[in-house]
UniProtKB/TrEMBL annotation:
GO molecular function: catalytic activity
Organism per entry: Neoroseomonas oryzicola
CDD domains, alphabetized: crotonase-like (cd06558)
Family in the record: Belongs to the enoyl-CoA hydratase/isomerase family.
Name of the protein this chain belongs to: Enoyl-CoA hydratase/isomerase family protein
SUPFAM superfamilies reported in the protein's UniProt record: ClpP/crotonase (SSF52096)
PANTHER family, A to Z: EG:BACN32G11.4 PROTEIN, ENOYL-COA HYDRATASE
């Protein structure tokens, strides 16, 4: 009898200003099923609708972060497959989330999950992990959004190396090419993620979220200058900038309220 992996959907936890989405299908390297895409999109909407949240962490159970999208899921769960957006649409939606995002990479990252993790604003990995994009080896032509993201975030030559040769890279090389933003020992992973999440949550949310949007637009070569200038003007007129300046003068930590 085939195990029903639909019983382990991604979960969402909210604690203070931090949200954590966790993948639970560790027995299958946290592969993403069609039903998971639906659930993840719902979680993303929940995070965006909560103005008190300042940071989102994506985590996973077990030794691997994720094996990417499960192509066999189309046949195994036809009802979810019929309703689910494409994996690429889910990844694009993740990139557009309002708050800064962190991927907690406790192990291997494979296939489509390499793009999912790359979409995060920060990727904290551990020594001993690896990354592998097997598209060329499988005969898969990757979707346009992922190709653009690899080029914009890692550079054309690195994108060609990863896509065209299906080379497997270790942790130190992933840090060198910029795939990882932080590299720590496995036992230091949670402290590193918690520290980064706390740092991001303490920043002025209007400024952080506005600049995140602008930087992503610049990375894709489509900055909306007028919208960027409007967000900058709103920050200049906000109570948060007054709080930030006052805290700097008074040599204390600012308390931002997002207004």
């Amino acid at each position: 009898m085939t195990e029903d992996t639909r019983l382990d959907p991604p979960s969402l936890e909210i604690e203070g200003a931090r949200a954590t989405i966790r993948l639970h299908r560790s027995r299958h390297r946290n592969r993403v099923e069609p039903g998971d895409i639906i659930r993840l999109m719902e979680h993303f909407d929940t995070v965006d609708a909560n103005p008190l949240l300042r940071v989102l962490v994506i985590a996973a159970s077990g030794p691997a972060f994720s094996a990417g999208f499960h192509l066999g899921g189309f046949a195994e769960d036809r009802a979810a497959a019929a309703r689910a957006p494409g994996f690429d649409a889910m990844v694009d939606r993740f990139e557009a989330i309002r708050v800064p995002t962190i991927c907690r990479l406790q192990g291997g990252v494979y296939g489509g999950s390499t793009d999912f993790a790359l979409t995060a604003d920060f990727r904290v990995g551990v020594t001993g992990m690896e990354m592998f994009m097997p598209a060329a080896r499988l005969g898969v032509h990757y979707y346009p959004g992922g190709l653009r993201r690899y080029v914009s975030r890692l550079g054309l030559n690195t994108a060609k190396r990863l896509f065209l040769t299906a080379e497997k890279l270790g942790a130190e090389e992933l840090l060198r090419i910029g795939y990882l933003t932080h590299l720590v020992a496995p036992e230091a992973l949670d402290a590193a993620v918690d520290g980064l999440a706390a740092t991001l949550a303490a920043m002025a949310p209007m400024a952080v979220q506005g600049m995140k949007q602008a930087l992503n637009e610049i990375g894709h070569g489509r900055l909306d200058v007028a919208a960027c200038e409007a967000r900058a003007k709103a920050c200049k007129e906000s109570a948060d900038i007054q709080e930030g300046l006052a805290a700097f003068r008074e040599k204390r930590a600012p308390v931002f309220r997002g207004a």
